[in-house]
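Private note to self, pasted from the team thread so I don't lose it. Backbone tokens:
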């Protein structure tokens, strides 16, 4: 969902004369689009240190059920690494465009690349290097787990690690758009309203920023996908005030409230199916 919306912005962009045109000036004046490579260097180093430390602890602990705590910690570390990858994909980290852009998504981008990046763009559909690295990762992961743990513990470790990792990722993305306005092709909304009305922010302190990897500021991220994560919190009140002054509904709520909204929405979506089941049971009972 996140990449689709940002792709829409890159391809169509804000409509001429839209109210959105005033917002970037406010954001730029506050210096919120300037890259923060040092902050990202520190964040990335600490994240990789935690990830490496978890595997060192895994090797030292040996064949014990205490490794399930290592699996849970690794799930958090892997998700944090994924958040950094997400930021890099949106070109939030490096000041220069060349350092941010590894793949080409349009013919114009591919023709602009030279040297090794140009060769990568030419043959990026046949990424044997990537396939090799993925295969190496899987083999290395399974080898390490089964070398240290007995088969039963290894299977449980993998289930806990991968399961919690997936759950953490899902819980991070779930509040962003579920239950919000769903648009159809040809809708009349301008870019500003399209992004704000279909997104939802999760409020909270710095721990929420860390846990969600900045995705709790989904409205600001969709309006400015290249904005560095460290400045999203400072941009939030500016964007909210801008929306309120123009009568645009700005959706936000606490973590539990946001998950409650998601569950109510999913319950409403499933209502017709439950009604069909009730009718079928009623007909079956009457026969």
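Design output:
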């Amino acid at each position: 969902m996140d990449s689709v919306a940002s792709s829409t912005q890159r391809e169509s962009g804000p409509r001429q004369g839209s109210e959105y045109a005033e917002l970037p000036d406010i954001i730029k004046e506050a210096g919120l689009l300037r890259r923060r490579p040092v902050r990202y260097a520190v964040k990335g180093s600490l994240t990789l240190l935690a990830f490496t430390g978890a595997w060192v602890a895994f090797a030292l602990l040996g064949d014990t059920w205490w490794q399930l705590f290592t699996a849970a910690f690794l799930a958090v570390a892997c998700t944090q690494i994924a958040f950094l990858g997400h930021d890099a994909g949106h070109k939030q980290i490096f000041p220069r465009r060349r350092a941010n852009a590894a793949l080409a998504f349009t013919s114009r981008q591919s023709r602009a690349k030279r040297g090794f990046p140009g060769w990568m763009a030419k043959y990026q559909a046949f990424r044997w290097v990537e396939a090799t690295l993925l295969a190496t990762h899987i083999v290395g992961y399974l080898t390490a787990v089964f070398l240290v743990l007995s088969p039963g513990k290894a299977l449980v470790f993998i289930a806990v690690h991968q399961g919690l990792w997936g759950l953490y990722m899902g819980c991070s993305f779930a509040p962003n758009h579920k239950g919000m306005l769903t648009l159809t092709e040809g809708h009349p909304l301008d870019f500003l309203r399209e992004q704000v009305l279909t997104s939802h922010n999760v409020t909270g302190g710095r721990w929420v920023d860390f846990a969600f990897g900045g995705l709790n500021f989904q409205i600001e991220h969709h309006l400015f996908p290249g904005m560095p994560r460290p400045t999203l919190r400072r941009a939030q009140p500016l964007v909210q005030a801008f929306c309120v002054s123009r009568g645009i509904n700005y959706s936000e709520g606490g973590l539990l409230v946001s998950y409650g909204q998601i569950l109510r929405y999913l319950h409403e979506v499933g209502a017709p199916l439950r009604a069909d089941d009730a009718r079928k049971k009623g007909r079956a009972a009457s026969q």
